[in-house]
């Protein structure tokens, strides 16, 4: 067992859980540096997502950081579309380039969030944040993309919700946790239906224990201590790091 890999997964789960994410994108980025079968990478990332966000979702719900009425429309349409997305075949290089490019773009949007908010305010953002059908379409679109690349999708959802003033930062983090949980289950089911689910029990057991501990610690840090601005900035930096690392490996 590679203890370096276990340590990486612990750190990733701790940092991502502190902002309401599962860490699937960074798990994929790290795993791509090792000689694992391509199908196993997505399985590991989604299983670790489930472990991390399950505890986070419970804590966010317990502390009242989830608005269920607004969250459900985002999730309900995303689940079947994540299942469909998981069934789309990608070549390995195409998959990692698509993921890396999307993450870098997401990080840029988050870093310029204040400027984008001013623009969105002039265009009546409240119609977007409170519209059930718009929320459903947003969740469904991201669910399809998330299922295609093998992550939970919260890393795409969160910055967009910040831009349209959907809710407070910690409420968005809680919503992202539920979104990731549902789409990770759906993504695994989609892979299984296509016979693309590769499983290594011993490896997943050790990595799962690592992210369980890291995720629990990170979730509690987010709920009790991190300010909203720190949550946003940390999220942006993590997204940028994961995306840039993937692009460097597969394009340079």
Order of helices and strands: HHHHHHHHHHHH
Total of helices: 12
How many strands in all?
0
Domain module count: 1
**Mass-distribution shape:** globular
Largest sheet: none
Give the percentage of residues in beta strands. Answer: under 5%
Unreliable segments of 5+ consecutive residues: none
Work out the radius of gyration. 17 Å
Helix content: over 70%
* Cα separation of the termini: 30 Å
Secondary-structure-derived class: mainly alpha
The residue-averaged pLDDT reads: 80
Q: What attributes does this structure have?
A:
single chain; 252 residues
Describe the structure.
The chain is an all-alpha fold and 252 residues long. It has one domain (3-251). Helix content is 80%, strand content 0%. The chain contains 12 helices and no strands. The chain has helices at residues 3-17, 24-31, 38-62, 68-86, 92-111, 113-121, 126-129, 132-149, 154-163, 169-193, 201-224, 228-251. Helix 1 (3-17) packs antiparallel against helix 2 and helix 4 (68-86) runs parallel beside helix 8. The longest helix has 25 residues, at 38-62. The radius of gyration is 17 Å and the shape is globular. The two termini are 30 Å apart.
Give a quick summary of the entry:
The chain has helices at 3-17, 24-31, 38-62, 68-86, 92-111, 113-121, 126-129, 132-149, 154-163, 169-193, 201-224, 228-251. It is an all-alpha fold and 252 residues long.
Draw up the topology in text.
Blueprint: H1 3-17, H2 24-31, H3 38-62, H4 68-86, H5 92-111, H6 113-121, H7 126-129, H8 132-149, H9 154-163, H10 169-193, H11 201-224, H12 228-251
Helix pairs in contact: 1-2, 1-11, 2-3, 3-10, 3-11, 4-8, 4-10, 5-9, 5-12, 8-10, 9-10
């Amino acid at each position: 067992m590679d203890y370096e890999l276990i340590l990486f997964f612990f750190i990733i789960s701790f940092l991502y859980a502190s902002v309401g994410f599962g860490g699937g994108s960074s798990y994929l980025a790290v795993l791509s540096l090792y000689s694992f079968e391509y199908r196993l990478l997505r399985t590991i990332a989604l299983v670790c997502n489930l472990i991390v966000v399950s505890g986070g979702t419970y804590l966010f719900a317990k502390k009242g950081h989830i608005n269920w009425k607004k969250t459900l429309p985002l999730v309900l349409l995303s689940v079947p579309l994540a299942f469909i997305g998981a069934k789309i075949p990608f070549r390995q290089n195409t998959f990692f380039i698509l993921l890396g490019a999307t993450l870098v773009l997401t990080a840029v949007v988050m870093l310029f969030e204040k400027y984008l908010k001013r623009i969105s305010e002039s265009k009546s953002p409240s119609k977007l944040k409170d519209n059930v059908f718009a929320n459903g379409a947003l969740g469904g679109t991201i669910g399809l993309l998330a299922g295609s690349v093998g992550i939970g999708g919260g890393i795409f959802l969160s910055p967009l919700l910040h831009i349209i003033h959907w809710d407070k930062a910690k409420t968005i983090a809680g919503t992202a946790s539920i979104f990731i949980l549902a789409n990770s289950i759906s993504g695994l089911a989609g892979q299984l239906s296509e016979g693309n689910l590769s499983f290594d029990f011993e490896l997943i057991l050790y990595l799962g224990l690592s992210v369980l501990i890291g995720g629990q610690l990170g979730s509690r840090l987010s709920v009790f201590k991190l300010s909203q601005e720190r949550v946003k900035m940390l999220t942006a930096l993590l997204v940028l790091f994961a995306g840039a690392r993937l692009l460097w490996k597969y394009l340079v």
